[in-house]
């Protein structure tokens, strides 16, 4: 899927910085290469040489000198390549997104590391919102989301939720003021995206059942809007739904923001090799 129609003119005008591209090239080069192209600090001058972190079960994680030099050096903007491929494997094992198999022009799954979900949210909103755009939000909403959205001058359409999260009929009613064809017009007024917290929503604590996600996803396709899925609480569910857990139907039309903070849980998840497609939420 081509996302250009959703992106603001400012965002579309951005080009990758040549320095960041050179950094990526340097990372793939042999250590003997002395690059005079980009300004990389001499790692021998870095103040921290090694580090050791002990986690609550007593396991120690050690950063030797080489790793420390790597960690403190400039790297590619999306994240250190090894971390990105670990995260891709993690997403594949956990959620099996169909987009992982897509070609880049079909909208292949991409990952970018940010300092938490909040930074991801701010980046996504800036990338998508022009003043006056209509956007959909399930309420009551996380105050950090409102704080990021309000200064951007969009028109926030609040949707109702109950004990199972966002009510599809409330979304249907909000969309009924437009015809689906209007979403294809260049100066579309139809909503650009729906923001939702599908697991353990903040502040309500509700989680969307699979059937609702499916219904909401179908409306996103019909009215051509994105689903911004903020998912910082996936690992905090009391009734753990493991193995093949569909995100928002795991197709394109959704962008996902995860927070990784529950180390042990994540370690267990990455070891799962045999997904059971019957278990969905
Ligand atoms: C729904 C929601 N999104 C995002 C965040 C921010 O997450 P992070 O700490 O990963 O930036 C929070 C934190 O409370 C939250 O509740």
Keywords:
Aspartate Aminotransferase, domain 2, PyrdxlP-dep_Trfase_major, disordered C terminus, transaminase activity, 281 residues, five-stranded parallel beta sheet, alpha/beta, transferase, 9 strands, pyridoxal phosphate, Aminotransferase class I/classII large domain-containing protein, globular, binds pyridoxal-5'-phosphate, two-stranded antiparallel sheet
How is this fold's topology laid out?
Blueprint (H helix, E strand, L loop, with lengths): L8 H5 L4 H11 L22 E4 L5 E4 L1 H8 L8 H15 L21 H12 L5 E5 L4 H7 L5 E5 L1 E2 L2 E2 L1 H8 L17 E4 L13 H14 L2 E6 L22 E5 L4 H8 L11
Parallel strand pairs: 3-4, 3-7, 7-8, 8-9
Antiparallel strand pairs: 1-2, 5-6
Helix pairs in contact: 5-6, 7-8
Pyridoxal-5'-phosphate (PLP) binds next to helix 5.
How would you describe this protein?
This protein has 281 residues and is of the alpha/beta class. It has a domain at 114-252: 3-Layer(aba) Sandwich (Aspartate Aminotransferase, domain 2), CATH 3.40.640. The protein has nine helices and nine strands. The strands form three sheets. A five-stranded parallel sheet has the order 4-3-7-8-9, with helices on both faces. Strands 1-2 form a two-stranded antiparallel sheet. Strand 3, helix 6 (143-149) and strand 4 form a beta-alpha-beta unit. Helix 5 (117-128) runs parallel beside helix 6 (143-149) and helix 7 packs parallel to helix 8 (210-223). It is globular and about 60 Å long. The two termini are 25 Å apart. Bound molecules: pyridoxal-5'-phosphate. It holds the Pfam family Aminotran_1_2. This is Aminotransferase class I/classII large domain-containing protein. InterPro entries: Aminotransferase_I/II_large, Class-I_PLP-dep_aminotransf, PyrdxlP-dep_Trfase, PyrdxlP-dep_Trfase_major. Residues 67-236 form the Aminotransferase class I/classII large domain. Keywords: Aminotransferase, Pyridoxal phosphate, Transferase.
């Amino acid at each position: 899927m081509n996302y250009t129609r959703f992106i603001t003119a400012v965002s579309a005008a951005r080009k990758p910085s040549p320095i960041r591209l050179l950094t990526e090239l340097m990372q793939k080069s042999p250590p003997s290469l002395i690059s005079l192209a980009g300004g990389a600090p001499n790692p021998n001058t870095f103040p921290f040489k090694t580090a050791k972190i002990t986690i609550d079960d007593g396991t120690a994680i050690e950063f030797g000198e080489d790793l420390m030099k790597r960690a403190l050096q400039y790297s590619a903007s999306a994240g250190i390549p090894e971390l990105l491929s670990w995260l891709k494997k993690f997403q594949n094992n956990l959620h099996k997104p169909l987009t992982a198999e897509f070609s880049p022009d079909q909208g292949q799954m991409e990952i970018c590391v940010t300092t938490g979900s909040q930074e991801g949210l701010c980046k996504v909103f800036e990338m998508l919102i022009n003043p006056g755009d209509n956007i959909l939000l399930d309420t009551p909403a996380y105050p950090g989301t409102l704080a990021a959205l309000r200064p951007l001058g969009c028109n926030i359409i609040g949707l109702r939720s109950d004990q199972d999260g966002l009510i599809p009929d409330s979304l249907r009613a909000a969309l009924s003021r437009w015809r689906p064809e209007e979403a294809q017009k260049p100066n579309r007024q139809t909503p650009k995206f729906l923001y939702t917290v599908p697991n353990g929503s903040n502040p309500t604590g509700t989680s969307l059942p699979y059937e609702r996600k499916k219904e909401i996803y179908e409306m996103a396709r019909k009215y051509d809007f994105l689903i911004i899925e903020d998912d910082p609480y996936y690992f905090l569910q009391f009734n753990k739904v493991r193995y093949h857990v569909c995100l928002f139907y795991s197709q394109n039309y959704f962008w996902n923001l995860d927070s990784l903070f529950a180390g042990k849980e994540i370690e267990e998840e990455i070891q799962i090799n045999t997904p059971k497609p019957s278990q969905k939420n």
